[in-house]
């Protein structure tokens, strides 16, 4: 299914050019913004190169962990249109199918995201030896939390017809709280400390600063992320199964 969805780029090659152009434009505008901010800030307060490298890394990682919640949106659409019924009668997993389809459709973002991460590591200085002990637990937290968010938000489609709007609202909240719009290390310290008690920094920020190289998460924050990851993964599977039983019982 993943390979089948990827064939769309053969039929619509213009999507490749438009996708790359949009990502390049986004990076350019963001970099220009922080260069201007750095020029009008007190000396040493804002390092534009540091932030641009961080931004390249964190937005490059997003498609690898489906942090844009495209899988959740696709799941909601499958439930709303009844397409999920066709999936349920096939020998495939209804919870994994959107992941396979989205991966094929996300091929350009994955390729460009990898390039962004490599360039971001080069710009910012890269992964340090001190960061290596953090790498495996942070990777597991990132994967588990984003999987949980996608499953949980997708399952909202079983209970309401407004699942798409719920997904978009949560995405706007998450992109700020996980440090995608503004690095958490630049946020007000008390707010950043409270933010570390939530699952959002562990969903992307911790991994981004590891690759960035100039910052490290606290082990306590990683542990909090692990607790959130385990709890949300358990809850998301339960909610999915509950919604699926309701869906099958109604016979949609």
Describe the protein in words.
It is a single chain. By secondary structure, this protein is mainly alpha-helical. The chain has one domain. The chain has 13 helices and no strands.
Average pLDDT figure: 86
Helix content: over 70%
Distance between the termini: 24 Å
Integer-rounded radius of gyration: 19 Å
Helix-strand pattern: HHHHHHHHHHHHH
Low-confidence stretches: none
Tally of DSSP β-strands: 0
Features:
252 residues; mainly alpha; 73% helix
How is the topology of this model organized?
Elements: H1 2-6, H2 8-11, H3 14-39, H4 48-61, H5 70-81, H6 83-88, H7 97-105, H8 107-124, H9 132-155, H10 163-177, H11 189-195, H12 200-212, H13 219-250
Helix pairs in contact: 3-4, 4-8, 4-12, 5-9, 9-12, 9-13, 12-13
Quick recap of the structure?
With 252 residues, the chain is an all-alpha fold. Helices cover 73% and strands 0% of the residues. The protein has one domain (2-250).
């Amino acid at each position: 299914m993943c390979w089948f969805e990827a064939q769309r780029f053969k039929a619509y090659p213009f999507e490749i050019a438009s996708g790359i152009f949009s990502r390049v434009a986004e990076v350019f505008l963001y970099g220009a913004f922080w260069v201007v901010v750095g020029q009008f800030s007190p000396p040493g307060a804002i390092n534009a190169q540091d932030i641009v490298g961080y931004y390249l890394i964190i937005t490059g990682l997003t498609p690898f962990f489906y942090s844009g919640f495209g899988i959740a949106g696709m799941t909601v659409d499958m439930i709303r249109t009844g397409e999920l019924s066709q999936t349920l009668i096939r020998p495939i997993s209804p919870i994994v199918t959107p992941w396979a389809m989205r991966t094929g459709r996300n091929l350009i973002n994955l390729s460009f995201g990898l390039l962004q991460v490599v360039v971001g590591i080069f710009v910012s200085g890269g992964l340090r030896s001190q960061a290596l002990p953090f790498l495996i637990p942070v990777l597991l937290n990132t994967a588990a939390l984003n999987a949980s968010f996608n499953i949980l938000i997708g399952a909202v489609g079983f209970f309401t017809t407004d699942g798409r709007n719920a997904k978009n609202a949560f995405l706007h909240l998450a992109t700020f709280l996980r440090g995608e719009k503004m690095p958490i290390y630049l946020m007000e310290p008390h707010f950043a400390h409270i933010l570390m008690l939530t699952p959002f920094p562990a969903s992307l920020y911790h991994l981004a600063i590891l690759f960035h190289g100039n910052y490290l998460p606290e082990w306590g924050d990683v542990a909090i992320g692990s607790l959130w990851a385990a709890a949300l993964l358990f809850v998301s599977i339960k909610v999915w199964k509950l919604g699926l039983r309701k869906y099958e019982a109604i016979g949609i």
